[in-house]
Amino acid sequence: MKPVRLAIVGCGIAARDLHWPALKKLPRHFQVIALCSRTMESADALGELIGCRDRTTDYDALLRRDDIDAVDLVLPIPLNHDFTRKALTARKHVIVEKPLAASMKEARSLCRAAARAKGVVAMVAENFRYRPTLIRLKKMMESGIAGEIYGARFDVFISITPQTNKYLKTKWRLKHEYPAGFPVDGGIHNVNALRFLFGELKTVRSSAQQVNPTIGDVDTMHIDYRAEETGVPLQLNLFYSARGMREIRLLVFGTGATLEMRGNTITTFRDQKEPRVENVEDSGGYVEEFLAFHKAIRTGGTTETDFAEGTRDLRTILDAVNKAGLSP
């Protein structure tokens, strides 16, 4: 299958550090032929890094070009709606960074626009869904290795500040125009993972706090979900101001074993037995998500992270925001 001719729109940190390293590994699948950014300075910086000379600040002109098949939108969340709608209207295939939109109204609008653009692939860049470690964990759960699953807990305990975290140095994250700030921007990954493993989730209760005012309106959330189909209770703890800590792990509790996913490692714990550790080759799911995008374009298919799926992710995290007494 021939390469997709791709334009990267938004030339900031995520484009440079997450998307380009994946695309660089896929020269038979993608040809980056143009860059577009709010400023030429940003476009030039990425262009020099990746060797792309075609750079512009005119997004509308970019969409009129016949030599571009698809756009990779790596933008501040509040811009996703308008830029994505324009791309779909121009019949360009779209992969857009999560969350899909800044509100449910915008997300539903994009779902309708994607439905109208028949034959155009509309995909959310939710890399967690394509992570080999998470896929392996689901297969282990389905195999019955843990017995009957009766609970799960996803903990994100880290300390982030504008001084130590490059993503928080961007003004649109510090002065966010979407609900709750970083727990939505980052926590939607964790919601997607839980939905992948357990199906649709109902928010039972939720609480939110602002511990560090310098990183947004909210930096701490505790959410109790329940899997709608099985009734399994699930906890999601998003603590972005946990001083001195970096603990990100997903625990799945079964009657026969406990499974722990931590980074690229899955550990199986059983009574009176040594833990069994399995290391999975996993670079974050970025290569895999772009492969899925390419396949859908070239085969006329869909992806597992289409706009309907991205909307369900957003609804699930915003339901928890609402339950915590915050306006979604």
What tags apply to this protein structure?
single chain; 328 residues; alpha/beta; Rossmann fold; Dihydrodipicolinate Reductase, domain 2; 2 domains; 8-stranded mixed beta sheet; 6-stranded parallel beta sheet; 35% helix; 28% strand
Q: Structural class, from helix and strand content?
A: alpha/beta
Low-confidence stretches: none
Average pLDDT, rounded to a whole number, is 94
Percent of residues in helices comes to 25-40%
What percent of residues are in strands?
25-35%
Strand order of the largest sheet: 8-9-10-7-11-12-13-14
Record field, number of beta strands: 14
Q: Report how far apart the termini are.
A: 42 Å
Biggest sheet record: 8 strands, mixed
Radius of gyration: 20 Å
Which CATH top level class of the largest domain fits? Answer: Alpha Beta
Count of separate DSSP helical elements:
11
How are the elements arranged and paired?
Elements: E1 4-9, H1 13-24, E2 30-36, H2 40-50, E3 55-56, H3 59-63, E4 70-73, H4 80-89, E5 93-97, H5 104-116, E6 122-125, H6 132-143, E7 149-159, H7 171-174, H8 182-185, H9 187-198, E8 201-209, E9 220-227, E10 233-239, E11 241-254, E12 258-262, E13 265-269, E14 276-279, H10 286-299, H11 307-323
Parallel strand pairs: 1-2, 1-4, 2-3, 4-5, 5-6, 7-10
Antiparallel strand pairs: 7-11, 8-9, 9-10, 11-12, 12-13, 13-14
Helix pairs in contact: 4-5, 5-11, 9-11
Describe this structure as you would to a colleague.
This protein is of the alpha/beta class and 328 residues long. The protein has 2 domains: 4-126 and 286-302, 3-Layer(aba) Sandwich (Rossmann fold), CATH 3.40.50.720; 129-283 and 314-323, Dihydrodipicolinate Reductase, domain 2 (2-Layer Sandwich). The chain is 35% helix and 28% strand. The protein contains 11 helices and 14 strands. The strands form 2 sheets. An 8-stranded mixed β-sheet has the order 8-9-10-7-11-12-13-14. A 6-stranded parallel β-sheet has the order 3-2-1-4-5-6, sandwiched between helices. The longest helix has 17 residues, at 307-323. The mean pLDDT is 94.
